[in-house]
Amino acid sequence: MTERAGVVIIGGGINGTGIAYHLAKKGYTDVVVLEKGYLGCGASGRNGGGIRQQWSTKENITLAMESTRMFEKLPDELDTEIEFEQGGYLVLAFTNEEVAQFKKNVKLQNDLGLKSSFISPEEARDIVPELNIAKVMAATFNGTDGTIYPFPVIYGYARAARKMGVDIREHTTVTDMVTEGSTIKTVKTDKGNIEADTVVNAAGGWSAGIAKMAGVELPNRPYRHEIMVTEPFKRFLTPMVISFQHGIYFSQSRHGNVVGGIGNPHEEQGINQRSSLWFMRTMAKTLTDLVPRFSAVNMIRQWAGLYDTTPDAQPILGEVPEVDRFFQVNGFSGHGFMVSPMVDKVTAELILGETPSMNIDRLMVTRFEGMDLEMEYSVVG
Ligand SMILES: Cc1cc2nc3c(=O)[nH]c(=O)nc-3n(C[C@H](O)[C@H](O)[C@H](O)COP(=O)(O)OP(=O)(O)OC[C@H]3O[C@@H](n4cnc5c(N)ncnc54)[C@H](O)[C@@H]3O)c2cc1C
After folding, report:
1. Domains and CATH numbers, the chain
2. Would you say the CB of residue 283 lies under 6 angstroms from ligand 1?
3. How many helices (H) and strands (E) does the chain have?
4. 48 CB within 6 A, ligand 1
5. Predicted model pTM
6. Using a 6 Å cutoff on CB, does residue 12 contact ligand 1?
7. Which of 6, 68, 307, 363 would be 334's cystine partner, CB 3.0–4.6 Å?
8. Cα-to-centroid distance, 381 and ligand 1 (Å)
9. For 56-115, how does the pLDDT look when each residue is reduced to its tens digit (9 = 90+)?
C-alpha cells in the first residue's frame, strides 16, 4: 500500500525532529519523520553538547547566536530540562597563524554583536586555574557559550511535534526514492512506500547516500569522531575548553563528569562508529598535558559518531537545483547541534514558502559549483 504525506523528513536526529516541530508549530502537520533506528541514534545522541557562537564566518556566527537565544527559551517552550549551562567557551591558540585568525574572528564576532574577547594566556588561566599555559599563545572567550544535554531536546521536539499531529516513525529505513522528471514521486522504506510533495534530507552522515537515491550528488562525506566521559568528581571546570591545534574539546557537566573528544587527522572517510584504542590513548595524553590534574581521573566510557563533513566545513541547506522540493539539512561538519534551532526554523519557513528569518543563499549546495568557497576555520578536525 502506498501512503501520502505533504512532507517526508528522512532522519530522526536533532534536525529531523526540530524541523517537524517548527512545521507543526506553524500549523502544518502533514509530516512524516522516518528514522532507521531510535530518535537520536545518529550524531545527535553522540555529541559533546557544545554550544559555541565563536566562529569565523558570518553565517555560522549568526546561526549560532540566534540558536543560543532559542536554546535559552526552549526549557519553557518544551517544558523540559535541557541542562543548558552557559559557562562559556575558552578557545586556545598555539600558533602565530591561530593568533592572527582569532583576532579576525573576534573582530567579526564583535561586529555581529557577540561579546567575545581576545585574551592573554594568563587571563585564560584565571578562567581555568589548572590549565597548563606553557605553550598557549593567546585565547578567546565568550561567556554565553556553553553545553547542553542533547537527548531532552530531541525527545522534547518529538513529543511536542507528535502532540500536534506529526507522525514520527522509528525503526523505519528509507531504502530508495522514485523520481519522475525533476520530482521525487515516492520514498521507499522497508515498511512500505510514501508519496511526498516535499522531501527533507536530514540524515547526517548518511545524507550523501540518501541524496544519491534521488540522483543528487552532494560533496559531504562521513568521518568517525570519537568522544569519552570520565567518572564524576568535584566540579572545577566552568567553560568548555577547546584547541583546534590539538583537535580537542572538553567540559565538565553539572554532575561532575568530564565529557570530551579529539579528532584523528588520519581518520578514513566512511561509516564507522566503532571505538579505538588510538582515541583512548591520545585523548588521555592530550587532556593530561593540558590539565595535569586529569591524570588522577578515570575514563569510564568512550563511543563514536559521524561528522558529516563538507569541503568548506559549512552546512548544506535549502533546495537542490536538479530536483524540486528536495531540501538539504546536512553537512554540519561537527557542529550541527549548536546551530539546529535556527537551521530548523529557517528550513520550516522555506518549506512553507515563507520569507526565511535568515538568508541562507551562501549555504546552498550551488556554492560548490564555482568552488569559490569561504572556509570555516574554527572547527575541530
Ligand atoms: C562525537 C561527536 C561530537 C560532536 N560534538 C558536537 C558539539 O559539541 N556541538 C555540536 O553542535 N555538534 C557536535 N557534533 C555534531 C552534531 O552532533 C551533528 O552535527 C548533529 O547532531 C547533526 O544532527 P542531524 O539531525 O542533522 O543528524 P543525525 O543526528 O546524524 O541524524 C541523522 C539520522 O538519520 C538516520 N538515517 C540515516 N539513514 C537513514 C535511512 N536510510 N532511513 C531512515 N533514517 C536514516 C540516522 O539513523 C540518524 O539518526 C558532534 C558530532 C560527533 C559525532
Report:
1. 2-46+151-219+312-370 (3.50.50.60), 84-143+221-309 (3.30.9.10)
2. no
3. 9, 18
4. yes
5. 0.98
6. yes
7. 307
8. 16
9. 999 999 999 999 999 999 999 999 999 999 999 999 999 999 999 999 999 999 999 999
